[in-house]
Amino acid sequence: MEVRESKVALVTGANQGVGFQIAKALAENGYIVYVGSRNLQNGVAAAEKIGYKAQAIQIDVTDKGSVENAVATVQQDFGQLDLLVNNAAISHAGTPGRTLEEIMAANRPSISSVDEMRTVWETNVFGVVVVTQAFLPLLRKATAARIVNVSSGLASLALARDPENPYAPHFELIYGASKTAMNAVTVAFANELEKSGIKVSAVSPGFTATALNNFQGTDSVEVGSLEPIRVALEEDGPTALFTGPNQEVYPW
């Protein structure tokens, strides 16, 4: 085990998009960062771009064996983890190459595929639980550990019923509801871990142009990553808070 001088972070789904930007910012701020990727070579390429103390780690959040291997690697290298960012997510599991509009049309609750819903939730909800549970022993060894779950403004049930919210009509069962469920997971962990000093928060990047939406988002990945980066770097922030762009506090 190495003698560590820096804090250690792991970001899932960090080989591209918002996850990559979070990992890059953490590395630039002195963290040793594990760049989590389902495909190890993609993670290696991303870690090489980041430089500093970034290193690739293979982790598929839907594969318990893969998650356990990642835990064993961090345990062997450093013996603890200061920050876990659950960023890995998928927006759909249907026919590739569709536009965002086509995906939304197919995902209407009355006709959406339950099989596709299960596949998306396996990553976006159950994957977050599996990864968090697996890394908790290492997080408990850190002085002020944090867990940051990358969510979506679509996740808020209050906003989904707000007639002033232009995105409310797009709340659906496959992606939107998966992020609502992930927010529930966030609150559940925050409640249990609060007394132990581990803070758990959810953060939305906003409508960011990433592979999640066929790069049809209105914000650049750099702009969309600003709030997730701020939350990831905030060591003395509150627990159980859900925020979005410009530090706006969202209702659960």
How would you portray this structure in words?
- With 252 residues, this protein is of the alpha/beta class.
- 42% of the residues lie in helices and 13% in strands.
- The chain has an eight-stranded mixed beta sheet with strand order 3-2-1-4-5-6-7-8, sandwiched between helices.
- A hairpin with a 3-residue loop joins strand 7 and strand 8 (248-249).
- It is globular.
- It starts with 7 loop residues before the first strand and ends with a strand.
Briefly, what is this?
This protein has 252 residues and is α/β, with parallel strands linked by helices. It has helices at 17-28, 40-50, 64-77, 100-106, 114-140, 157-160, 176-193, 221-224, 226-233; strands at residues 8-11, 32-37, 54-58, 83-86, 146-150, 199-203, 242-244, 248-249. The longest helix is centred in the middle third of the chain and has 27 residues, at 114-140.
Return the string of H and E elements. Answer: EHEHEHEHHEHHEHHEE
- Number of strand segments: 8
Q: Strand arrangement, largest sheet? A: 3-2-1-4-5-6-7-8
Q: Mean pLDDT score, rounded?
A: 90
Tell me the strand percentage band: 5-15%
How many H/I helical runs?
Answer: 9
- Indicate the radius of gyration in whole angstroms: 17 Å
Low-confidence stretches: 209-218
Describe the global form: globular
Q: Which structural class fits the helix and strand makeup? A: alpha/beta
Instruction: Note the gap between the termini.
Output: 40 Å
